[in-house]
Fold this protein.
Amino acid sequence: GQLETFLSYHSGDIPTFKAILKNQNDELIYISKKSGFFKIIDSKLIAFQTEVSGRIPNLDILSVYQIRNEFIVLATKGAGLIFTDLNGKLIKQINISNGLTSNICYSLYIDKSDGIWTGQDNGFSRVEYPSPLTVYNHKNGLEGIVLSVVADDDIIYAATIKGLFFKSQYDESPFKLQTNTVPVPRKIDWA
């Protein structure tokens, strides 16, 4: 049974679990405070590697909420809010660089409109996810007045008065300046 499964976990102390959820295959997913995601395999509690645990080291999960049967929200100490699919694949991270007032999120509350409220160390925030608005600015590495934007496959390109910037639209990496472009002349003489 479940108790024997927990007692058969032998890699140190039994982790502190924040949630037990079901994925699309009706498998139970156990989410621990600091040790990541677990499944029961052959009556043993086994940690499994997820994209979240691979990309965000020292993850400290303070609260967990599953929204519908679509995704999981993790409130963390130091990494803001993390959105994953039901198997731990990273969907989005919302933190101080893209809208939260703090990266420390203690609690979660989901309202009737699926608005996600998080209690933080310096107040609280409401997040609408998936939001129709994403802000890109100097906090994301973008410099200068934006003249044009285009998304091609998963890359966003922004032409600014400081140059051509690009980034993946599916992760939280900052914009990078395209360095091998032809410089635009500041003054054009029309003969």
